[in-house]
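Repro:
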Amino acid sequence: MPPISSPPLGAILAVSGVTKSFGALRAVDNVSFAMAPGEILGIAGPNGSGKSTLFNAITRIPFDMDAGIVVFEGRQVQNLPAHRLAALGLARTFQRETVFPSLSAVDNVIVAIEQTKRGGSLRRNVLLAEQALDIVGFPATLHNWRAAALPVFLRKLVMIAGAIALDPKVLLLDEPASSLTPDEIDRLRALIRQLREMGLAILLIEHVLELLTGVSDRLMVLDQGRVIALGEPAQVVRDPQVVEAYLGVAP
């Protein structure tokens, strides 16, 4: 896919020619895509295909891209620090539950709020944190439990609530279904759809293909750092290049 020189009309997020190398390994190779407001764009690919590295490069956590342009709401943002991106409305989660284990669920969300322009008085921050936890379906009776004492699914909800509390316009979710049971995946599916109904655009990395294809408006597949397919999920999963990337043999 060639780089785009300007974002498509109406795109909330447009990424052009993003590249990231680690020594001789080109982990992300000239990736370009654009998202409409309220769209769910799924990202699939084999292990090591560059999915999380792409998220890291876009959000500048924990490293910058080597080349490329990121346009968010019509503004180039690839040189802004991570906290500025979050304040503008570009929030993300991580593969692992990045919570502070010694803090309560609500305090974990407050920490996220305090890093952005939404932060205010302690009373306001607590209110925003509790609202975010309520949105993601976190039990109110467990708001003051230490994160270390929570099961995996609830720790994931705390992490998503921390991102939601920033009042994002685009939410990047990195493998939120990993280590979850089928029932928990169903709850996650409902949450993702709920967040889209609230107006969020969602960029979703996931290995659980049933979840990914079930919620995504479009699906992008990476292999060896490159985009090999982008389109409607039902068509993409039948693409010969995609089948070969996952199975190792041509169909």
